[in-house]
Amino acid sequence: MYVVVSLAILVTMVLALVRALRGPSVYDRVLAVNMFGTKTALLLAVIAFLFERPDFLDLALAYALINLVGVLAVLEFIQSKPRKAEAADLD
Amino acid sequence: MIELVLDILSWVLLCTGGAFVLIGGIGALRLPGFYTRLHAASLTETMATILIFAGMILQAGLSLAAIKLFAIMVFLLLTAPTASYALANAALQSGLRPVAQREGEDA
């Protein structure tokens, strides 16, 4: 049962990677990478039950935390660029 | 008897969650435009997370693993919509228009 769910998550991670490589805009890439990170936490939680090793749940929690921080940092970087360009135009 | 019912219930939840993950992944790859893709990806981050973690909590029963699973679920449910909102807000402020609106401007 867990094998089916983990396979579904793995296929979705591959699809997200394809979108991250093909994405026309930078936001598509950030979206795909964010989705990949969330699916990683999900996959780790499922693997903890698949191999019956509860330690993996802590790894899943840590991955979820790191993913949020990474995405917010990238977004701050993207969002601050057009603002600076506008300010330069106004000057 | 109760264990059998819990098993079947958790299997149904896990399978539905896996289906949602797959549908969201295909949608994130195939849909046109950034905002529709964001919609498909958000589906996997909320609905599938709830379903899969609910199924695993039913399998874990009353134990430390269930508490950890619940903590991870609550955390993912708090952060994934926040990241989606921040992403959509950044895209909108940078001037990326939805597909329908862009076609309306062309016509």
Automatic annotation (TrEMBL), chain B:
Keywords: Membrane, Transmembrane, Transmembrane helix. GO terms for molecular function: sodium:proton antiporter activity. Pfam families: PhaG_MnhG_YufB. InterPro entries: PhaG_MnhG_YufB. The keyword Repeat does not apply. The chain crosses the membrane at residues 6-29, 41-60, 66-88. The keyword Transmembrane helix applies. This is Sodium:proton antiporter. The lineage of its organism: Bacteria, Pseudomonadati, Pseudomonadota, Gammaproteobacteria, Cellvibrionales.
